DNA sequence: CGTTGAACCTGTTTGC
DNA sequence: TGCAAACAGGTTCAAC
């Protein structure tokens, strides 16, 4: 569910409330598999008494930097929600854990149970982080073009590959391809320089717009204090099957590409020639 | 090495 | 209306 703009919004929302706070402990959990590195009782013991020194983001992961240098890392996957609550709120059937602080609590809800939490040493986290590609908002155009020139394969699958770009997911991949006027099944090795530049601009533009609008709330996503985002009102391709393209009027089409539902304008994003 | 498919889960929407 | 299949924002791992 949450992609880079949604996770960034959550991090910015939660940061002022939890930075400098002391962790009391894990107060509640109901699904063991949420805990990827330590069973809940062990995690509770490791966290109790630690201070949170900062909150950050890497790709779609949320990072809590602790005063023992370790990192509490969370991934929301499809349906996860991470919220700060100033006052305790009773857990629901979807609440996977609650982290009690000296003031308020951090709560992790996740209907589909795909979300995970890890506790890493700096070295362990460095190794995990190294498996992810560069942050698209921290790349120059030159770096992007060089990086893209080393890759081949269909653009939709490439944008979803976290080793290519960290943080782009299904919604923003479709939005970026629409903006760049590139067909999702066009192959990276066929792009010419101006198309690569257009894709760079488009990826950054849609991610920045998503952040400005506090994320896309279609089903479950909420920001770090529980309110919905507004970027769903500004989508051009994703979820607009059968509706008119706002650039040319043609009907937005849906296909499956990279094993994901993919939305594009057949006129603005012309199909590649040959097999596809 | 690259690509594909299945698996992990539950809730909601779609189609017959 | 009823029920089953399809579908959903992500990631990992086995198989080819």
Q: Find the structural class using helix and strand composition.
A: alpha+beta
What count of helical segments does DSSP give? 7
Order of helices and strands: HEHEEEEEEEHHHHHEE
State the total count of DSSP E strands: 10
Please give the order of strands in the largest beta sheet.
Answer: 1-6-7-5
**Large-scale geometry:** elongated
Keywords:
276 residues; elongated; DNA-binding; alpha+beta; 4-stranded antiparallel sheet
Task: Tell me what you see in this structure.
With 276 residues, this protein is α+β, with helices and mostly antiparallel strands. It contains seven helices and ten strands. The strands form three sheets. Strands 1-6-7-5 form a four-stranded antiparallel beta sheet. Strands 2-3-4-8 form a four-stranded antiparallel beta sheet, with helices on both faces. The protein has a two-stranded antiparallel ribbon with strand order 9-10. Helix 1 packs parallel to helix 7 and helix 6 crosses helix 7. The protein is elongated, with a radius of gyration of 20 Å. It binds a DNA duplex (16 and 16 nucleotides) through helix 6.
What's this entry about, in short?
The chain has helices spanning 4-18, 40-47, 122-129, 141-149, 155-160, 170-180, 193-212, and strands spanning 23-29, 52-58, 61-66, 71-75, 80-85, 95-101, 105-110, 116-120, 253-257, 260-264.
Q: Layout of helices and strands, plus pairs?
A:
Blueprint: H1 4-18, E1 23-29, H2 40-47, E2 52-58, E3 61-66, E4 71-75, E5 80-85, E6 95-101, E7 105-110, E8 116-120, H3 122-129, H4 141-149, H5 155-160, H6 170-180, H7 193-212, E9 253-257, E10 260-264
Antiparallel strand pairs: 1-6, 2-3, 3-4, 4-8, 5-7, 6-7, 9-10
Helix pairs in contact: 1-7, 4-7, 6-7
The chain binds a DNA duplex (16 and 16 nucleotides) through helix 6.
């Amino acid at each position: 569910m949450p992609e880079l703009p949604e996770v960034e919004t959550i991090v910015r929302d939660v940061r002022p409330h939890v930075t400098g706070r002391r962790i009391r402990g894990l107060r509640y959990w109901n699904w063991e598999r949420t805990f990827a590195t330590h069973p809940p009782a062990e995690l509770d013991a490791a966290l109790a008494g630690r201070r949170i020194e900062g909150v950050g983001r890497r790709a779609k992961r949320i990072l809590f930097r602790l005063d023992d240098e370790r990192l509490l890392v969370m991934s929301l996957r499809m349906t996860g929600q991470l919220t700060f609550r100033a006052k305790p709120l009773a857990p629901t059937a979807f609440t996977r854990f609650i982290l009690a602080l000296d003031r308020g609590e951090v709560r992790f809800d996740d209907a589909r149970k795909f979300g995970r939490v890890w506790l890493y040493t700096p070295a362990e986290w460095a190794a995990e982080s190294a498996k992810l590609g560069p942050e698209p908002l921290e790349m120059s155009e030159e770096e992007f073009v060089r990086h893209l020139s080393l890759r081949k394969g269909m653009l939709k699958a490439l944008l979803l590959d976290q080793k290519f770009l960290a943080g782009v997911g299904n919604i923003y991949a479709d939005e970026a391809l629409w903006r760049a006027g590139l067909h999702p099944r066009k192959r990276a090795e066929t792009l010419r320089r101006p198309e690569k530049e257009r894709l760079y601009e488009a990826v950054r533009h849609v991610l920045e717009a998503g952040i400005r609008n506090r994320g896309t709330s279609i089903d479950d996503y909420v920001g770090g204090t529980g309110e919905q985002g507004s970027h769903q009102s500004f989508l051009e391709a994703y979820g607009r099957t059968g509706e008119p393209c706002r650039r040319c009027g043609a009907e937005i089409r849906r296909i499956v590409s990279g094993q994901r539902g993919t939305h594009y304008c057949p006129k603005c994003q012309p199909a590649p020639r040959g097999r596809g």
